[in-house]
Every structure is written in structure tokens, then in C-alpha cells.
Amino acid sequence: MAKISLICEQCGGNIILDDSHEIGTCENCFAQFVVKQDQIVQKITQNITKHVYGYQGKDVEELLADGYRLLDLGDTRTANAKFSRAIDIEPDCWSAHLGYASTGGNRSGYLSMVPEYRRAYSLASTEQQEIDTFVDMTGYLPDKHLRSAFVRAFNIASSKERVKIFNLVSGVIGCDESEIASLAVDLCPNDWRALFAMAKFRQIRARWCELEGNFFTGKHLPKAAQEVVDIFMKAYRSAKSENEQAKQTIISYVNSLAQDNSYKVFTNTLLSQIQREG
User: Fold this and answer.
1) How many CB atoms lie under 10 A from the CB of residue 5?
2) What is the pTM of this model?
3) Is residue 4's pLDDT more than 50?
């Protein structure tokens, strides 16, 4: 089958013509088109005009606009094909690589977006582009408070530290949630968001726990459950020092958790400590 540079109107992929040059099939989405000879001549003329007079960038802009419009509509697969086509035309286009990453990269696996985010970050020419790349990448993280903690750490870091943070975060995408939270706490140990995320991921250790001890030694939580209480309380103190809304976020979450009978003993202890500290 002969190949000519005709673009699929549905996904932006290449259209491959049959031997008659009258039927075209998109190599991406397999849509078929009836192609008239005058369309081919018109397309060849357009290609010559673009290359000779420097209008090729307009095609990239149109593909990007289509891609992000499709992304807003939730059609990530077709948007991905648009971004891929834009990269074919302009390999060093930051926006194209960012869009390609946000729609899954080459979609070969659940981590196929990571190399594309790294590529986009390396192509960023401004501080805002670096920030936009990092923020977009954190969308793949499993918790909004984790994302907020990482973004805050990135925003206040120096340029050199930002590269390190970007590499660390891109390296934990897809990892165990507790491992991601541990990185957040390491990067920003006093950020209530990171501590709160860690507490939520560790709370399973306190499920169905019962008080231990006796009249003489006093009743207390098992060690594993008490460690979770300590993390929640550290997050609570940090949130309280930041603002009332942050404080209420944690209180609301604990109150909601208290409705689950499997956490009753744990939340009773935790809420008692919160009330004591005010």
C-alpha cells in the first residue's frame, strides 16, 4: 500500500492509500475515507507551501489545540494521537510532549507516561513550563494531599533542588502509596499534607485494634496503632499552625473514620488527643 502525507480528521494519524489511491485507511484509528485525486493534489500543494514558506508550525499549533480540546472532553486516546503527530512534526515541542505524557505516552504500560514527562521537563524553556510539567505529572499520584505537598516543596525549592525533586517524584509514580508518602515526608517533614497522607496510608495498622494493659499499667493502644495516632497528631499540629481550614480538614476526616466500627477504639483515642490539644 502506498503512503502519502494525508491526515486523519478523527485522530490526526497518517492515512494510507490503497493501490487505487481512492480509498484511505488511518493507520492509527483504522477509519476509512474515500479520497479524490484533487484532494491529494491539494494536500501536496499545501505541504510544499508549508515547507517552503515556513508554515509548518501552524499544523503543530492546530494539532495541539485539537489535542487539548479532546483532552478536556475526556477523549484521551484520540488526544494522544494528536500530540504524537505534533511530536513527529516538531520533536522538540514542549507542549506536545506534555500533552503526550498526560495522555499516557506511548501507552505501552502503566508507567509509559514517565519518560515523556522527563522529556517534557528537559525541553522546558521557562520556569513556568517546568512548574506546569511537574504539576501535571503529580496528577498521577494517588492522593490530593500528597500532590499538594510535592507541589509546595517544588515551588519553594531552588532550580537545582527542583531537578532532584522532579526526578524523585517521577521515580515513585506507580509505587506503593506508603512509599510515596514516605518520600513526601522526607522532602517536606513539617508539611501537614505529607504527614496527613502518611497517616491515612498507615491507618490500616490500627484497624480492629483493642486497648492493651490493665488497671495497674493503664490501658493503651498497641504500638502499631499508637504510631499511627502520633503521625495524625503531628499532621494535626502542623495543620493547626497553618490555618483553621487545614485543621478542620483533618478533624473532618477523623470524624468520618469514626463512623467505621472497625476503627472505633483507634478513633476514640485519636479524637480524645485532638480535643485535649484544642
Assistant:
1) 11
2) 0.72
3) no
Residue type, 38: D
Provide the grid cell at 198.
Answer: 502518611
Q: How many CB atoms lie within 10 A of CB 53?
A: 8
224 SS3 class: helix
Cα-to-chain-centroid distance, residue 91 = 23
Distances (CA, A) of 158 to 104, 166, 236: 29, 12, 28
Nearest C-alpha neighbor of 144 from the set 253, 244, 69, 243: 253
C-alpha span between 85 and 68 (Å, rounded): 13
10 Cβ partners below 8 Å, 6+ apart?
A: 26, 29, 31, 78
Mean of the per-residue pLDDT values of the chain: 85
Q: What is the pLDDT of residue 29?
A: 62
Q: CA 92, 96, 102, 106 torsion: positive or negative?
A: negative
Direct distance between the N- and C-terminal alpha carbons of the chain, in angstroms, rounded to an integer: 75
